[in-house]
Write a structure and sequence with these properties.
heterodimer; A: 115 residues; mainly beta; 7-stranded mixed beta sheet; 4-stranded antiparallel beta sheet; B: 112 residues; 6-stranded mixed beta sheet
Chain lengths: 115, 112
């Protein structure tokens, strides 16, 4: 029962390096999300994809890009990493479009440190 | 801009005590969810409340949605060490939205 799978689990980058965080779900969900979690801040939405082929900005999109590769996969890219992007990144998915009472299913996170 | 404030931010109590966590906003939500997160894992849904004034119970946990749908509370009766974790509320601003606003979180530690 995989659910939402994120890779890698841990990563250390130097300032200015680029990388892509991968997320895949096997629940045939329509909507997918990328959040970052920082101490005392809860989770903040970076980008989301309501359905395959669409992406939209969340609260904190600056410095990030996303790709909804297909229905299963939603990747997050840091083009030029900055220390302020040190965080734990979570991917989530929801099954039914437009139903706000549906549960979000989360992956276990990617812990990213930017030196 | 953080629209959902949770209080308290930290809570350390003895096993058997009761506690209440609050989630407050000036915005109206079409629904509000509560999640629990354990170290090294993603949040897991506990409950969703949709109707103003709604009360839901999950064993020793009682969730309430405010009448005006701007606030919510989580009450735990006779807390146990297994209740330890980070509790997060998340609100949906409209019924057709795909976006959720998360609260700042309450870190609970229950001591045996």
């Amino acid at each position: 029962n995989a659910g939402v799978t994120q890779t890698p689990k841990f990563q250390v980058l130097k300032t200015g390096q680029s990388m892509t965080l991968q997320c895949a779900q096997d629940m045939n969900h329509n909507s997918m999300y990328w959040y970052r979690q920082d101490p005392g801040m809860g989770l903040r939405l970076i980008y989301y994809s309501a359905s395959e082929g669409t992406t939209d900005k969340g609260e904190v999109p600056n410095g990030y890009n996303v790709s909804r590769l297909n229905k299963r996969e939603f990747s997050l890219r840091l083009e030029s990493a900055a220390p302020s992007q040190t965080s734990v990144y979570f991917c989530a998915s929801i099954g039914r479009q437009g139903y706000s009472n549906q549960p979000q299913h989360f992956g276990d996170g990617t812990r990213l440190s930017i030196l | 801009t953080q629209l959902l404030e949770q209080s308290p931010q930290f809570l350390s109590i003895q096993e058997g005590e009761n506690l209440t966590v609050y989630c407050n906003s000036s915005s109206v939500f079409s629904s509000l969810q509560w999640y629990r997160q354990e170290p090294g894992e993603g949040p897991v849904l506990l409950v969703t409340v949709v109707t103003g004034g709604e009360v839901k119970k999950l064993k020793r946990l009682t969730f309430q949605f405010g009448d005006a749908r701007k606030d919510s509370s989580l009450h735990i009766t006779a807390a146990q060490p297994g209740d330890t974790g980070l509790y997060l509320c998340a609100g949906a601003l409209s019924s057709g939205t795909y976006k959720y606003i998360f609260g700042t979180g309450t870190r609970l530690k229950v001591l045996a």
